[in-house]
Amino acid sequence: MIHVSRLRKVYETGVVALDGVDLDVREGEIFGVLGQSGAGKSTLLRCVNLLERPTSGTVTVAGQELTSLDLAALRRARQRIGMIHQHFALLSSRTVAGNVAFPLEVAGVPRRERATRVAELLDVVGLDGKASSYPAQLSGGQKQRVGIARALAAHPKVLLSDEATSALDPGTTQSILALLKRLNAELGLTILLITHEMHVIKAVCDSVAIMREGKVAEAGRVADLIATPGSLLTREIFPLPEPAPPGSVTVTFAGQAGEPVMSSLVRRFDVDVDILGGSLEDVGGVPSGRLRIRIDGGKRAEALDYLRERGLVREHGPEPVDARQPEPETGAETVAEEAR
């Protein structure tokens, strides 16, 4: 649905905001772009609908290359792309209904059709009793709901969200995220959102790109990245002290967190399992976590193989040097070999 290729943005000051960014957002998914201030994520979002013209590279949305369009064609293409702003960007002199109707007026939609669409959207976002209110009379969460309704007015296929929850309190943030997830499911919207908050990624995103200094440092489906050894996402969601202690094993759970894996390991292989640290989170409705353990016993290697067969990721600390341990048999898989 959204394809960004080799995107580069250099400002007149010489600042390189985007440095060869590639991004692919599948139709119907919620894709999060995660990064701290200055990472380039806001510039990337504004380049997707060409509010910022990239220095080089291409942006394609719904099969149409926006970077090749003239101004008139670009305006038409933007009608299929809704945008939610961090600080709401509502017109203070207009009512809630007037704000939602504004893009329809610009598009030349007849008055009666506008009124029907506005009423429908206010019901969708839970503001059906606020049509005559003004922005100053609304809470932050209500203002953002107006912004979402306005972004949906022209039946867009794509919704862009620019830090839509960063100005809201935690409870309101959760309600707005739940609304976005419902709209994604019910309307089939493709949502590209940027955020510096990890809990937004965990709550609603199917895929994520982590940006650092104008580049994509890592990208993929959230579930896949959690199950990838050493992924940046896993390390940020489930931080553990580094470096790993000698002989330790870091096991990442992605959906198996409710299963008695550790107790099965002990019973099956008669090994001792020492838990050194870890954490458990709900990521996209799936219980996931990262656990650092040390396994001791004669069947340690078999226990490690068991973890692999269970589909668990293993990241190893350096193997401790112990002169009392026998040399492994020829061809035996050691922890040090796996670490390499």
TrEMBL record:
Q: Which residues form the ABC transporter domain?
A: 2-238
Q: Which Pfam families match?
A: ABC_tran (PF00005), NIL (PF09383)
Keywords from the named record: Amino-acid transport, ATP-binding, Cell membrane, Membrane, Nucleotide-binding, Translocase, Transport
SUPFAM superfamilies for this protein = ACT-like, P-loop containing nucleoside triphosphate hydrolases
Q: Where is this region: Disordered?
A: 311-340
Q: Please provide, alphabetically and separated by semicolons, the GO molecular function terms listed in this UniProt record.
A: ATP binding; ATP hydrolysis activity
Give the GO terms filed under biological process for this record. amino acid transport
UniProt feature, compositional bias: Basic and acidic residues: 311-327
GO CC annotation: plasma membrane
Q: How does it assemble?
A: Homodimer. Forms a membrane-associated complex with FtsX.
Biological function: Part of the ABC transporter FtsEX involved in cellular division. Has ATPase activity.
What does the sequence similarity comment in the record state about its family?
Answer: Belongs to the ABC transporter superfamily.
**The protein's name:** ATP-binding cassette domain-containing protein
Tell me which species this is from: Sphaerisporangium album
- Give the taxonomic lineage as stored in the record: Bacteria, Bacillati, Actinomycetota, Actinomycetes, Streptosporangiales
